[in-house]
Amino acid sequence: MSDKTKPLIIGIESLISWLNDCQSKVILNSELDDFNKRINRPALAAFGKHRWFKSKLIGIDLHELDQSLNILLLARKRTEVKDALQFLSNIGYVLYSHSDCISRFVHHSHIRNFWRRVITGEILEYKDIFYTVENPKQATDSSKLLVIFSSMADPIYAATISGRCFTQNFKTIAKYIPEDTYILRIVDIGGALTGYYCNTVYLTENQKNIQSLISMICQHCSVPKDRTVLYGGSKGATAALLHGVLGGYNFIATDPILDDEYYIKRYNDSHFVSGVYLEPKTTLFQNVLNRRLSASYNCIITSDRSPQYPYIQSILLKSPAGQDIICFNSQNSDIHDHPQVSLKTINLVTTMINGILYGIIKTGAWTQLVN
Q: Which of 153, 309, 315, 320 could hold 258 in an S-S bridge, CB 3.0 to 4.6 Å?
């Protein structure tokens, strides 16, 4: 490894101590609201003057606290490590590897010059958004576009960008859709874990840039909106719904997460969302869904057996936009929790995607699925 690719090593205890010093200023400053206290605004204001954060590559040495876990796993056990991880995310650092007790980060602005998959052209970049495009077997005058947003990774706390932010859902989908369909996959970089394809404290224009990317691909491939479908499950469903509504695209979203309450309270913020986003998902979707939708085909697949179902009902289906969204409620007996919804409705998803791309499906209504 050359000097240019060697990260600046920072001890985790030293980082925590510096953050605590900054945080003490928050306590003394009663003018800061809860959000700015939570994200440690003084630290965000001061980091630019610190030599640590002038480096595009940094490594957080964890051996003082743990000699086996990467920083994501350790953050699940120790609040002070989680706060440090959140801070690094909020100033633009992205975890890219872990070994020898050191979790290594690259600054977002340097990813295009550092990530080998980007350098080799395997992954492309447009306005700070990283993506791949799979070309169709044959392009036609009526070519189509399928946009697939990634779900959470398995394992969820992978240290690599590819492993954590670019889950390859539906790897073989090209075999089951029209042969003249382009497939766009977008890397979900942002936040301490991932970004949910939303705006974050650091990536304040993330949603706008993703919209620009989809629009650019449509133009480049000569695909109109009515032959474009956005799809995702779970986290990817949150993105498919969000960007489908924002851009007026057809979308199929399987059990989207519209409120972080469940994962924060039951799993102690297992998705690392606290203090990373500009607004909670409930506020985001209340604003986005506060209008009727255009004539695009909009579909939610869920199940009342999923813990996400009450949030989908209260936030989405009762909103103005909910009047224009078809909702399938699967009663499949094998669904016992949120992850099974995507697994047990894949046949329906494939049917819906093909129906829209072929122009067969135009309208619909609330439907109860028995199996």
A: 315
Query: Residue 133: phi, psi to the nearest 5?
Result: -130, 125
Q: Among 181, 323, 299, which Cα is nearest to 250's?
A: 299
H or E stretch covering 74: helix 71-75
pTM above 0.90?
Answer: yes
With residue 124 as reference, give the H or E element that holds it. Answer: strand 124-126
The answer to whether position 322 is within a domain reads yes
CA distances from 19 to 25, 30, 71, 85, 89 (A): 10, 18, 16, 11, 14
Domain end, chosen from 59, 90, 108, is at 108
For 284, the enclosing helix (H) or strand (E) is helix 281-288
Q: What is the pLDDT along the chain (371 residues), one digit of tens a residue?
A: 444 678 999 999 999 998 888 877 655 455 555 666 666 667 777 777 788 999 999 999 999 998 899 999 999 999 999 999 999 999 999 999 999 999 999 999 999 999 999 999 999 999 999 999 999 999 889 999 999 999 999 999 999 999 999 999 999 999 999 999 999 999 999 999 999 999 999 999 999 999 999 999 999 999 999 999 999 999 999 999 999 999 999 999 999 999 999 999 999 999 999 888 888 999 999 999 999 987 678 999 999 999 999 999 999 999 999 989 999 999 999 999 999 999 999 999 999 999 999 988 765 444 555 55
The range of the structural domain enclosing residue 200 comes to: 118-369
Q: Are residues 143 and 179 in the same domain?
A: yes
The whole-angstrom separation of Cα 360 and Cα 301 is 19
The domain boundary, picked from 108, 133, 154, lies at 108
Four-residue CA torsion sign, 133, 138, 143, 147: negative
Compute the residue count for the chain: 371
